């Protein structure tokens, strides 16, 4: 419910009451970069643009960034809870996210909160949705939420293998496509970037190559049986 404060003859909606139900938040991982990008538009209901410069990204520390879609107040309450969980489980993002999801499902007050989060560190990207689920992205490392999330995710997937495009380039191009389509998102964006260690990147690429090789061998073996 929106509260209106009246100052003489002028009424206005308080920023705390604004709900960012429509938005586009996208995370892309490629090479040594992890990008989280989000638009700044806040829409009330289906028509009223309440604000075009609201930041929906937050950096918890040097290694964790969060983007949100849904109620602004609810999202900040959840981010505070997640920060507390990370204090309980330092450097264990998955564990902290799962513990938050458990509380979200079982706590009566938390169950009323309407928001979705994308949480990134240098090693992982997770979505924590309004049902208290913790979702990991596909192998391409792309995840998106909000009304424009489907468009942004599809565009990023189409661009992820383009040679010469790094994570930030892909994220910006995908956001441009999504925000051109989605009327509830705008082209005023915030971007957060985490840089991964080269050794970790090389290890991940080696694991992917090994997995692809095993899948190819299994496919050939299956065809040979036929």
TrEMBL record:
The keyword Ligase does not apply. Pfam families: Proteasome. It comes from Leishmania enriettii. InterPro entries: ATP-dep_Prtase_HsIV_su, Ntn_hydrolases_N, Proteasome_sua/b, Proteasome_suB-type. It comes from the Eukaryota. GO terms for molecular function: threonine-type endopeptidase activity. Belongs to the peptidase T1B family. HslV subfamily. This is ATP-dependent protease subunit HslV. Residues 198-226 are annotated as: Disordered.
């Amino acid at each position: 419910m929106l509260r209106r404060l009246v100052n003489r003859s002028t009424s206005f909606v308080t920023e705390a009451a604004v709900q960012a139900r429509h938005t586009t938040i996208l995370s892309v991982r490629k090479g040594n970069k992890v990008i989280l990008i989000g638009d700044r538009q806040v829409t009330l209901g289906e028509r009223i643009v309440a604000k075009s410069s609201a930041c929906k990204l937050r950096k918890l520390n040097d290694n964790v960034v969060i983007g949100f879609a849904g109620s602004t107040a609810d999202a900040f309450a959840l981010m505070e809870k997640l920060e507390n969980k990370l204090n309980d489980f330092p450097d264990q993002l998955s564990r902290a996210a799962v513990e938050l999801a458990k509380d979200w499902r079982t706590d009566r007050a938390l169950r009323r909160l309407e928001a979705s989060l994308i949480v990134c560190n240098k090693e992982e990207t997770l979505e924590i949705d309004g049902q208290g689920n913790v979702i990991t992205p596909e192998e391409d490392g792309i995840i998106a939420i909000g009304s424009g999330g489907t468009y942004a995710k599809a565009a990023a997937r189409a661009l992820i293998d383009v040679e010469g495009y790094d994570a930030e380039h892909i994220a910006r191009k995908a956001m441009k496509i999504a925000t051109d389509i989605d009327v509830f998102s705008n082209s005023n964006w915030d971007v957060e970037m985490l840089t991964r260690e080269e050794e970790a990147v090389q290890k991940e690429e080696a694991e992917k190559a090994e997995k692809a090789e095993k899948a190819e061998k299994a496919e050939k073996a299956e065809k040979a049986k036929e």
